Amino acid sequence: MNKPLADDNQQNESSLVLFLAGDAPRSRRAHRNLSAALAATCPDLAPVHEIDLLREPQQAIDFGIFATPALLHIDAEGNRRLLYGDLSDEGRLTDFISVL
Amino acid sequence: MSDTEIAAEQGLVKRPTGIHDLDTVTHDGLPAGGATLVIGEPGCGKTIIGLQILASALERGEGGVFMSFEESRAQILRNADAFCWGPQLRESSRCEIIDGQPMRRAEFSGAFDIESLIAMLDLCVKRVAGTWIVLDGIDQLLRRQPDSQVAIDQIAQINDWCIDNGYSLILTGKHSGNDRPQPDHLTGIEFMLSTILVLSSILVDKRLNRRFRIAKYRGTRHNPDELAMLIDSAGIHLPYADTFNAEAVPAAGKRLGTGIQRLDKLLGGGVYSGSITLISGKPGTSKTTLGAAFVAAAARRGERALLISFDEFARQIVRNVATVGIDLQTPIDSGLLKVVARASWDGLVEEHYMALLGLLDDFKPDCLVIDPASALLKSSGAEDAFLALERLIAVTRTRGITTMLTSLSESEEPSSESSLSHASTLADTWIVLNYQINLGERNRSLSVVKSRGTGHSNQVREMLLSHEGIDLADTYPFGSEVLMGTARLQKESEEAAARKHRAQERLRQQQRLEREISKTRTMIQHGQEELQRLQEELSFEHHDQTASDQETDLHDNSILRHRDPGQGGLDQ
């Protein structure tokens, strides 16, 4: 039933997706923390793709993501890395996006 | 509200789980809206409860969602395949199994929300028109939450959502074996949820004994005892879930033969239909033979009889009792008799109990023999053996099955007649078999220690086994001893000789008296004749005297006339 990857992400070299739940405080915080971190480390990066799981719950099953906020990175080989939480731990977030 | 939902007392609405024993102990099911927490050590059967509830729901035409944070969908289905209801989960379109494992491989940075989880569950449960949601291993998700209070709040959030939407939610979580009914990492959750089931396991004699307990079920009656739990191919069982309904016990007045005529006579016509008979005795006192005679007699009456043996195999029993004239093969062939052998060491006492119940359900016997019931005490988990036996007796009583239990005893005295003396209080009739050793012989004896509702003999009888069958013989009380066997036979022949001698003596005496009587009679007859002769003589004598007197008078008158002066004779 669950797919390791959603089909529409196959063609990208590498993609970063932020899963949110409406405008819940933690989701807003994650969005803010991620934007700040990306601005500091790789300002050239295209805007991060965001999916609201309250509006598209099927995506939760397709991506296997059951809590929000969650930051998903799929590299060119299709390897997944997932970081849950409001991304308030700066060290972990920096480490997570350092491969970009 | 669907028709399967049952409005219970105090407004709590329950939904049957479809697991008979679980519905019994919970008094008709789990909350129809809201969470039930199932916690236990690894390997206690938490996942199985969730899967079985879901399978039962599918069976009834309900739907459900199963999400595991510990195992993949393939693993879950593989586990379920071990059960008879497993394939349903794979095949039904009303069942959604979600793999929550990807959570495990993730990293965490700060707290997270579970609204998306709820949104996803909402999507799935509506898609299958479901009533049950199982979140298996919820602790795996929530232990990632840096603040455990947040985790608890989120459980409350899922619980509230289920209450609002009328979903029954099963949450399973591990705990590390201490007594607190809470999953690890979720301290405090036990105060928030109203229904908590605790599963545990202990090793007794190196065998795994599973236990089930309702730690909490707010707002409803329930069975709070820790109960034995078994898992077999049909799923989970709580063998002792059913409560005993004393009202349902019939008190039949009909008596049934035991297969031994003299014993029936001793018992005032046999044992009561539906009663319990305990037969105890040392090894070799023919307990099995008595049991076999009983089932054979039942089959001859056209009743169904079940003989469960913990000692011998079916064929051996049939062969052995045939030598004392008891035919079991014919009723086995006709289907009236079933002989089942079980090994007491080969299972927990609960397993034996459940297997016996299953046999009673399937075969529906009128008469039951368990030989020996004391073997149950040898099986693992024997702390419950008495309980199992008592429950079994309660079941047979309720169903009106006439039951005979045999018990192996080691000691001499009936009062210490084995560990089963406890069970003897439950038995209506208690027959003790024993040996008497004298004059180099070992003779079997039988005595009725008690028989409720029967004026029974207090005498010990000798039990005789022959090719023709079993019989009882009166014994000879001889001083403080009771004579049996050759001693009894000898005593019997001595008695017979004395009787014969006394009879001859009496005959002689009678003949002598008769002779005397006839002699006396002859004498009397002679006397009578003499008497008559004398009387006749006397009467003749009287007659003679009268005639002579008259003659004398006539003579005197004639002389007087002659001397009259007017007449002749003038001599003056």
The tally of strands of chain B reads 26
- What does the average pLDDT of chain A come to? 84
The main β sheet of chain B shows up as: 9 strands, mixed
- Provide the gyration radius of chain B in Å: 47 Å
Please give a structural write-up.
- Chain A has one domain: Glutaredoxin.
- Helices cover 32% and strands 20% of the residues of chain A.
- Chain A has three helices and four strands; from the N terminus they run βαβαββα.
- Chain A has helices at residues 25-41, 57-63, 90-97; strands at residues 15-20, 49-52, 70-74, 80-84.
- In chain A, helix 1 (25-41) packs across helix 3.
- The termini of chain A are far apart.
- Chain B has 572 residues and is of the alpha/beta class.
- Chain B has three domains: 6-237, Rossmann fold (3-Layer(aba) Sandwich), CATH 3.40.50.300; 248-474, P-loop containing nucleotide triphosphate hydrolases (Rossmann fold), CATH 3.40.50.300; 486-520.
- Helices cover 39% and strands 25% of the residues of chain B.
- Chain B is rod-shaped.
- Chain A binds chain B through residues 1-2, 19, 21-22, 24, 26-27, 29-30, 53-54, 57-58, 60-61, 64-70, 80-89, 92-93, 96, and chain B through 67, 73, 96-103, 105-117, 119-120, 122-124, 141, 144.
Task: Describe the secondary-structure layout.
The complex is a heterodimer of chains A (100) and B (572).
Chain A: E1 15-20, H1 25-41, E2 49-52, H2 57-63, E3 70-74, E4 80-84, H3 90-97
Parallel strand pairs in A: 1-2
Antiparallel strand pairs in A: 1-3, 3-4
Chain B: E1 6-7, E2 13-15, H1 20-25, E3 30-31, E4 34-40, H2 46-59, E5 63-68, H3 73-81, H4 86-91, E6 95-99, E7 107-108, H5 115-127, E8 130-136, H6 138-142, H7 148-165, E9 168-174, H8 189-192, E10 195-204, E11 207-217, E12 227-232, E13 235-237, E14 255-256, H9 261-266, E15 271-272, E16 276-281, H10 287-300, E17 305-309, H11 314-322, H12 329-334, E18 337-341, H13 349-363, E19 367-371, H14 385-399, E20 402-408, H15 421-424, E21 429-438, E22 441-451, E23 461-466, E24 469-474, E25 476-478, E26 481-483, H16 485-563
Helix pairs in contact in B: 13-14
